[in-house]
């Protein structure tokens, strides 16, 4: 099969949000710390009515309906998540409830976990399946979903929640470029969830940022090398090579710093002194001898390259931060919410996207990361159809309900107190959910969960 990639995308986000400037006041932090310092405006969250299973049930059922897909036409279904409510039973097995009634049980794929990276691993599995000898001509469905919640404190405003389903197959409008994926994985304790009774991670904030930026450095360098190897006609692969760059987004400010980081990499990859002097006339001397690993928290270097790349950021990356700014870190879906944001940013004007080349950086703590790229089709009709299917996203965001920080805190406390209770009927208001949302009805004495649809 040719042009294997993403044929369709469906997104769900919570119907409730808390305003970040109200949260600043409530938390007693300096005004602007969350909104300007982190770049976050609103944070979506779920009551105890929703869990990872319900989010994924909603997104899959919405996608099947919107794209009019026969359950038997899905040959592979997999889930990437780090929201674990059962140490053995997969979310995929729960999703089978949407397929069994149609006699559709021949579906490969299962759950994949490593922090925010599981969705990308699942997507690669699906792409590889379509390109492999096991492929049977049907479509693959990749689901990423998470509920990102933190204990009270500095990390709490970087939460969020959501799920994204990606329909994968040949002749796609969004094609994953072959042979240029670059991966960087290593052992790190930057963010992890060893306490299985709690939804909260243990997080070393500063280390997590350093790990994220060093993973980006490594992936970018290797991506450039691989691209050149396979496209020797391209002498230099730098920021100019991409029309857009999307990133896993723990919070929007980190992504602006990441784009600056790539421009710093470009500076260091420009080894010819004359060329460096011409391209970076104002600061090439000052930073001639800097090393990437010494600069993760170097304010001067950060500022110079933030300023230098500001226009590029506004053009190539800012449009992809819309949902992250409005919903927060969704964990596994985060980078794909960047893709959705980019697609909806053109308000249906396909000409702004046709034939464009999009760089993608996916990161999951612990750590696993990959940079890859997507080529957007030149086929107007194909792209238009994809964009039309996403036209619900912006209006639905406006239909959310704002919750006060006080009530948000109380609702979070209910989650904390009850996350593993049995004989439990959740208390979260069903009427506040969007129509069509699956919700948790009951957890029985054997921890079996039942769901209903609003
Ligand atoms: N107005 C404007 N900006 C402000 C203000 C203000 N009044 N006050 C602070 N700021 C800025 C700070 O200068 C800082 O920005 P800078 O780094 O560009 O200088 C920013 O706001 C955040 O302030 P910090 O003091 O650095 O924040 P803190 O250390 O309290 O927490 C952190 C930030 C570490 C990101 C925390 O939210 C966290 O741990 N989050 C979860 C971990 C995370 O997301 N890691 C990223 C990769 S891993 C992953 O995806 C989970």
UniProtKB/TrEMBL annotation:
One of its GO terms (biological process) is acetyl-CoA metabolic process. CoA binds at residues 208, 253, 257. InterPro entries: HMG_CoA_synt_C_dom, HMG_CoA_synth_N, HMG_CoA_synthase_euk, Thiolase-like. It comes from the Eukaryota. Residues 174-454 form the Hydroxymethylglutaryl-coenzyme A synthase C-terminal domain. Its EC number is 2.3.3.10. Keywords: Lipid biosynthesis, Lipid metabolism, Steroid biosynthesis, Steroid metabolism, Sterol biosynthesis, Sterol metabolism, Transferase. The keyword Lipid biosynthesis applies. It holds the Pfam family HMG_CoA_synt_C. Residues 1-173 form the Hydroxymethylglutaryl-coenzyme A synthase N-terminal domain. Pathway: Metabolic intermediate biosynthesis; (R)-mevalonate biosynthesis; (R)-mevalonate from acetyl-CoA: step 2/3. The active site is at 82 (proton donor/acceptor), 116 (acyl-thioester intermediate), 248 (proton donor/acceptor). It catalyses: acetoacetyl-CoA + acetyl-CoA + H2O = (3S)-3-hydroxy-3-methylglutaryl-CoA + CoA + H(+). One of its GO terms (molecular function) is hydroxymethylglutaryl-CoA synthase activity. This enzyme condenses acetyl-CoA with acetoacetyl-CoA to form HMG-CoA, which is the substrate for HMG-CoA reductase. Catalyzes the condensation of acetyl-CoA with acetoacetyl-CoA to form HMG-CoA. Belongs to the thiolase-like superfamily. HMG-CoA synthase family. This is Hydroxymethylglutaryl-CoA synthase. It comes from Polypedilum vanderplanki (Sleeping chironomid midge).
